[in-house]
Amino acid sequence: MPGALECGSCHALVHASRLEQLGASARLHEERREAVEASATWSRVLELLPPDSAQAEWVRGRIERLASAMANTPTVDARRAWIRKLGPLAPVAILLVNGKYLLALFKLKFLLSLAAFVTFYWALYGVKFGVGFAILILLHEMGHFVDIKRRGLPADMPVFLPGLGAYVRWSALGVPARTRALVSLAGPLAGCIGAAACALLWSKTGDALWIGLASVSALLNLLNLVPIWVLDGAQAIAALDRTERILLSAAAVVFAAAFGQPVFLLVAAGAGYRLFTRDIPASPDHAVMVYYLLVLTALGFLIALAPPPPVHS
Fold it and tell me: pTM of the prediction?
């Protein structure tokens, strides 16, 4: 029936994808303590739910709790009086309490952390390799960020931790395993593209810098695909059923032999371990499986491109 919020035959929610996006956005607003924005977003969710559904009842309760929280916050006049007491620090307080400036602060956090990240590797490896390495890490993280944003989900700009890596903060609560898997694989894919670009520059110039960057980037992205802990592979494999996990483990063993890269054995071991966890879905996801294997294959080829070290007699 046109305008229905629920399928009459299977009772599935008609706007499931949109509800997923709005729910993630509302939760992120709550994490940031943006009660007004969170309440408005939950209200939009409510419009897309059948009025008598359990989900609608839960959302109404959420909105009521947010309204109660807003009622207990200081009034505008009280805030102004509090800010006046700060004297010369008032401009800083105004900057921090106005939500529209938070985005600028997030961007500043991104830029400052990136600058520290570049400086760290510049000092460690020299300007060319250090800056190139930092840019390749940025490409990996932007792969995640762009994929999240194109799905209409909220995410913060990447934050860089010198010597440790980087991360993109986003709310994955309520997001299907398939979406989380695709977002996780987008980072290694972007990193693989960056490594391929470096390999292409090496083939054109013969400069060892480029093949060095390509090899290191490919190796790090491959390590990220080991399906354990907080690595990207851990979220990617969550969408694969038992048979696909067995096939992934077997393929990784073949790749280890074909490309001469033992890191693939870590992928195989991780996939084997995930055969005994409780997150195995009932149905397979062939698209995620193919995506995972293609990225692994491309990274293997890039690592194999590096010339062997010279043998000294």
Answer: 0.71
